[in-house]
Amino acid sequence: MEGIFAIWQRDLLKFFRDRARLFGSFTMPILFLLIFGGGMSGSMETMMASNMPEGGEGFNYVEFVFPGIVSMTLLMTSIFSAMSVIEDKDFGYMKEILVSPISRVHIAVGKMFGAATVATIQGMILFLLIPLLGLSYQLTALIQVIPFMFLLACALSALGLLFASFIRSTQGFQLTVQILVMPMIFLSGALFPVNNMPTWMDIIVKINPVTYGVDVMKKIMIDIENAQAAVLDAMGLNITVWGREVTIVEEILFIAGFATILVLFATLSFKRANA
């Protein structure tokens, strides 16, 4: 535990000391929030209402897209934080850790917790925009969603660690991750519903961990008990697999299993790369 804590603490201190990274990580999420939540909200709400019975009263696109923007922040911060592994290799710090008595599993877990903590903090900072956007999420819902945000960030940072464990350059890592990140965002329901997709695309949606992360966050943050069924369908809150609706518990178990498997793969990759 001391080894995990030391690695976690180092990554956290690096984040708070790097103000450019702190500021830059919010650029794209806030840009998406302004474009999709502000500029396109009227047209998106009109389009959704035209496809819903009973006019779709009560549909608020900004309310729909905000949990998706938070998930986008978690995704980008978690995965790109793994680039520190490559930087540590270049500066020799990773070699010092690998020759220490700390096991490879503890190294991977410490890096995962560090990236996940940074991503969760950044996601929580976005909560400060809620009053400015005219939204009214319940405080209890925001508190309840924080542990899940950390779990989702762990899964995504584990994915980044897996790539960082066998990619040798930061340029190659950025290019590879960019190719991966954008489809994961657009095929997750973060910015628009993914209910009526082609079969091949629907398969990608269902195996995308961000899909379940976005769905859980929306179900926790949005007042689904008082919403119309047509509105819930428009928001894409009824994910089905093999004709069966997926529950929140099943989504959380899927993400936890995803994180566990990828950490194990990252650990094996570390061992091969430094054998």
Automatic annotation (TrEMBL):
GO cellular component, one term: ATP-binding cassette (ABC) transporter complex
ABC transmembrane type-2 domain residues: 20-273
Places the protein is found: Cell membrane; Membrane
Record has Membrane as a keyword: yes
Alphabetized UniProt keyword annotations: Cell membrane, Membrane, Transmembrane, Transmembrane helix, Transport
InterPro entries assigned to the protein according to its UniProt record, in alphabetical order: ABC2_TM, ABC2_TM_bact-type, ABC_2_transport, Nod_factor_ABC_transporter
PROSITE patterns: ABC_TM2
Bilayer topology term: Multi-pass membrane protein
Coarse class of the protein's main subcellular location: membrane
UniProt entry tagged with the keyword Transmembrane helix: yes
Family: Belongs to the ABC-2 integral membrane protein family.
Protein's UniProt name: Transport permease protein
Organism this protein belongs to: Gracilibacillus halophilus YIM-C55.5
